[in-house]
Amino acid sequence: EGETAFTPAFRAAVTPQVLMCRRLEAGTINTGLSQLQVICNELRKRGKLSKTVGNGLRRVLHPYIDSKTYLSVLFTLSPSINNSKATESTLKFAVTAGMVKVKPIKTTGKVNFKSLVAELKAHIEEQEKMIDANNSKIEAIRRQQNRTTLAIEQATNPQKFANVSGGGDQVEKTRMVKVKKEVVNDD
Question: Is the pTM higher than 0.85?
Answer without folding.
Answer: no
